[in-house]
Here is the input.
Amino acid sequence: MKAPRSAIVIFTIAAIIALAGLADATYLTVQALTGETLVCGGSADCSRVLGSPYARVGGLPVAGFGCVAYFGAFAFATFAGFGYRRARTLLSITVAAMFLVTLWLLYVQAFLLHAFCRYCLFSAALVFLLAAMIVLTPRSN
Here is the structure.
């Protein structure tokens, strides 16, 4: 079933936003795995956040999980744009999970670490945009 034109535009924008998030998460993952120092505009907060114990789960960088999530969001948004209903459902589930994890990570930065990473805030903004787009996208019959 073909999606309405407005939904196609929204899912295309969502796919582009997911690609931006994938680029951000990939950069952070590569930096974490290679041990290189991040270039964060002279802010020590990035290193503090990304060097904290909260930046890894099971020895893997949290950004790596972000790569998987953003790639999933990209793929599901692309398929949803072509009218696949199940892809829209999976996109909604993926973005909801990303939203909840983002809220937790923002809490960690604000109240546990008292430091903010610009890359993490960029990712949070992208997730909030994705969530708003998914919620506001009209359902097709």
Observations:
- Residues 118 and 138 are 32 Å apart (CA to CA).
- Helices lie at 5-34, 44-50, 62-81, 85-113, 118-136.
